[in-house]
């Protein structure tokens, strides 16, 4: 069964080559939708054999939907540039076992890495995400950040996805700061309002869950640090939302 690989990029010259190589292990084509990169992303993608299309960034979900129209095959493997399929997932897809199953989408477990260190505690594993689906019956949401797959019959699996997301803590903070801004804007556009204490309650709840219920407490300083990161950005999402509503009233 033929599979289309789909990746959205912006200044991903460090990652895109390995991502495309990873996809071509099981895909018959790879589609790259690039948001007008200023580095060598486009050149590397073309050298690796991908079909490249340019589109100014529309938001995470809409950008992927833009690329979906260029995918020739029904089964879609939709990775980020910093993601790779783990060996168990390669084996599952290569076996074509999914063709004999009643599911149209598959949730994978995200293995997150900070540099070479795997973060499998404080709520960072299993970080389920859907990257493999059939576009005939499943599709992508239009969410601005952390889009999801909307499917008729999705399967949670024990298969893994490697996510080389951050080189250091500065990188995490920069990415999460951008994501919380997008999340707040999305909530604002939907007209959602929260109480002034919402940032605190969400932040403390996230910290408590990640540290005590999601193995943070068993991982020393790292466990507390990553639980705190989760809590801080839960706090910031709602703090930014409140700020947007205040600015609207002043306008």
Automatic annotation (TrEMBL):
List the keywords (alphabetical): Transferase
Task: List the InterPro entries.
Answer: Glyco_trans_2-like, Nucleotide-diphossugar_trans
Single GO molecular function: transferase activity
Family, according to the entry, reads as follows: Belongs to the glycosyltransferase 2 family. WaaE/KdtX subfamily.
Q: Which domain of life is it from?
A: Bacteria
* Pfam families named among the record's database cross-references: Glycos_transf_2
Q: Where is the Glycosyltransferase 2-like domain?
A: 6-89
Q: What is this protein called?
A: Glycosyltransferase involved in cell wall bisynthesis
Q: Where are the transmembrane segments?
A: none
Q: Which residues form the signal peptide?
A: none
Organism field: Arenibacter nanhaiticus
Taxonomy of origin reads: Bacteria, Pseudomonadati, Bacteroidota, Flavobacteriia, Flavobacteriales
């Amino acid at each position: 069964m033929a599979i289309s690989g789909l990746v959205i990029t912006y200044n991903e010259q460090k990652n895109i080559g390995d991502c495309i190589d990873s996809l071509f292990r099981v895909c018959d084509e790879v589609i790259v939708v690039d948001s007008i990169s200023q580095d060598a992303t486009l050149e590397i993608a073309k050298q690796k054999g991908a079909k490249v299309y340019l589109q100014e960034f529309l938001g995470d979900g809409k950008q992927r939907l833009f690329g979906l129209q260029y995918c020739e095959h029904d089964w879609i493997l939709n990775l980020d540039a910093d993601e790779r399929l783990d060996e168990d997932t390669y084996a599952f897809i290569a076996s074509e076992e999914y063709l004999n199953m009643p599911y149209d989408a598959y949730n994978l477990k995200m293995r997150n890495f900070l540099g070479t260190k795997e973060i499998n505690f404080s709520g960072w594993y299993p970080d389920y995400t859907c990257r493999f689906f059939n576009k005939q019956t499943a599709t992508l949401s239009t969410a601005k950040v952390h889009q999801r797959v909307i499917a008729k019959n999705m399967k949670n699996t024990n298969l893994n996805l490697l996510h080389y997301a951050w080189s250091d803590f500065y990188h995490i903070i920069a990415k999460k700061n951008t994501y919380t801004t997008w999340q707040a804007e999305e909530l604002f556009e939907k007209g959602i309002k929260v109480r002034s204490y919402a940032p605190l309650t969400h932040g403390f709840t996230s910290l408590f869950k990640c540290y005590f219920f999601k193995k943070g407490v068993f991982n020393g300083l790292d466990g507390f640090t990553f639980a705190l990161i989760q809590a801080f950005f839960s706090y910031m999402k709602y703090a930014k939302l409140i700020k947007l509503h205040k600015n609207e009233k002043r306008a």
